[in-house]
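User:
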Amino acid sequence: MSFRNIENLNIKKHIYPIILLFIPQIAIKVYNIIDKIMIGYMILDRSELGNYEEAYKIINVLFTIVSSLSVVMIPRIASIFSTGNHNELNKYLKKSFEFTFFLSFPIMFGIIAVSKEFVPIFLGEEYKKATLIVISLAPIILFCGITNVIGNQYLLPTKRQKQYTISIIAGLIVNFTFNLIFIRILGAIGAAFVTIISQFIVLLIQIFYIKKQIDIKEIVISSIKYLISSFIMFVVCNILNMLNIDNRILLLILKVLVGGIIYFICLFILCRNSISRFYKLP
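Assistant: Predicted structure:
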């Protein structure tokens, strides 16, 4: 690029879109640490903060697995949007939702089912209280998975940064306000409860913004087979507790293996092409 072309650049027109992208990123960073800051400030027992932080790390790692598709889909959806092909856009979004349900439901129910064994093994006996926090935070995997599709894969690529920013800031305000109440009463469990509420608010706002472009009813119906399969998996994993296996590691491995097999068998029964369709993703 020549210096003449640089001089002709209109920088001002890019400032507002950059700000719209910058604000939610800051809000997300604050959103991810505000509960920890408030627990540390409002609760004298330092173990509350330690248990919450370690539990949050586990959930965050699991969510990273669910959100892995975003990196691939964002440029693809932005490219399709630029062509004006809305039917193709909706088709890719539906695939993204199904992939998210395919992973998030079993991971959510799975971590709840194995948390009693997994947390002491992974974190140590001194973090036993984190087990309940992990269970309380588990729905974040599903909620954040859905908002990741709506926000990162639809609102941002389709130049609707303002709506995305509003949803994130609304969640941040709810998180801060309710934390003032529930952390004092319930400690780290209260912060986990508020995190679920605030993330659900973000989800509702984003659904409101896309309800005219995307068939929400169809998306909900497509999630039912994954919900049923995951719930059956969850029930079977809890039945395994009746075996009275003292070795936690052995019980954890057994739950993971049996739970995974049950999940895929149920999916195969409910919808034979539920798994194979993911291999058709570009």
